[in-house]
Amino acid sequence: MGHDRPAKGLTEEQRTDWLRLIRSENVGPRTFRTLLNHCGSARAALDRLPELARRGGASGAPRIYSRADAERELKAAAAMDIRLVALTEPDYPLRLQMIDDAPPPLAVRGQLSALALSMVAIVGARNASAAGVKFAERIARELGEAGFGIASGLARGVDAGAHRASLATGTVAVLAGGHDRVYPPEHVGLAEAIRTDGALISEMPLGWEPRARDFPRRNRLISGLSVGVVVIEAARRSGSLITARMALEQGREVFAVPGSPLDPRCEGSNGLLKQGATLVTEVSDVTAVLQPILGQPMDLSAEEPETPPMHDAEPVSRERERIVSLLGPTPVGLDDLVRLSGSTPRVVRMVLLELELAGRLERHGSGLVSLS
Q: What is the distance of C-alpha 204 from the center of its chain?
């Protein structure tokens, strides 16, 4: 890969603590990172959760994932040949590690080597036309031959075509549910075929049935894994457009395949072209844009900084009240809260962490927050 990363493997004890922390109530990927920075370790964070939630105004103690449950989950994962790869470990996909809400442990089934490939995501309509699926297969096969891995979401239509065409060269399917809840069910066979030379990944626990809101969450991982996203046949309101939007927020390249203006399946992808996405009619349209990017050293500044515990970020009650009073149902940014409260960014982040652990904070795109 050409990128030197410190190999910080977790001990089994630490892996259990990481799993307990991410599975605890009101702890998402961003909160997990903040807690790790604030407390110094997952074990210390677990000890502090009740106090932090109480300070955020929680009526009762947060539900903390028990050691027994975590050990059971790890045992069940091992029985299915699933590896839980932590954010700090060398097998974690490098580009995914750079997004600010990367899953702290990623559950991987299949070949870890597939995660080291430079990825291109191919997404599109579930009810794709025959021509759309055929083009997805062609571009996936040719990108695979050019040395790229293919990332997609294992859905019907375009996703399935892209996965099938890149089975031999390496493809990664991102699941919206647990590894034992492949969706749609008719793609269980395809999932098994992907494992041979590719990988399946999920941030969800085993047994998790995917719900509607899990698919947009899954889409940020498809774009996060990738250097660029190719959209083939996307209706005006579709998951593929959500993936394209997330790709732009993550600084990834967005490509779109033109389609008939008479086909509603192409309204969204044609709209992306009007907004400046790179037009794709052949594989060289993608590789010409991506090769120069891959030749540049990767900026790893988004990696989790090694910061000492944030003990100087303890807010006094007056500061906490002032920051909470600035929040409401309308999303606001951290910079505005810092400016208007007169507190330091660390103190504001601490108050937001407390509110989140109390279940009182909602996070929106672009770093905006509101009271829930």
A: 11
Cβ burial of 136 (10 Å; 0-12, 13-18, 19+) is buried
Distance CA 224, CA 251 (A): 9
Indicate whether 269 and 360 sit together in one domain.
no
| Same domain for 341 and 286 | no
pTM: 0.89
C-alpha distance from residue 319 to each of 154, 204, 249, 279, 350 (Å): 47, 36, 32, 51, 11
223's tokens: 């774009």
pLDDT value at residue 35: 94
CATH, residue 195: 3.40.50.450
**DSSP code for 276:** T
Q: Which residues of the chain have pLDDT under 50?
A: 1-6, 301-311
Task: Evaluate whether residue 4 is within a structural domain.
Answer: no
Same domain, 288 and 317: no
Dump pLDDT digits (tens) for 40-97.
Answer: 999 999 999 999 999 999 988 899 999 999 999 999 999 999 999 999 999 999 999 9
How many domains in the chain?
3
What is the reported pLDDT for 45? 96
Handedness of CA 228, 234, 235, 238 (dihedral sign): negative
Task: Write the secondary structure of 118-148 as one string of H (helix), E (strand) and C (coil).
Answer: CEEEEEECCCCCHHHHHHHHHHHHHHHHCCC
Residues 358, 273 share a domain: no
C-alpha 368, offset from chain centre:
18
What tens digit of pLDDT does each residue of 161-182 get? 999 999 999 999 999 999 999 9
Q: What is the reported pLDDT for 298?
A: 63
Residues 24 and 157 in one domain: no
DSSP states of 36-76: HHHHSSHHHHHHHHHHHHHHTT-SSPPP---HHHHHHHHHH
Domain termination residue (choose one: 92, 125, 146): 92
Owning domain of residue 318: 313-371
Cα–Cα dist 357/162, whole Å: 40
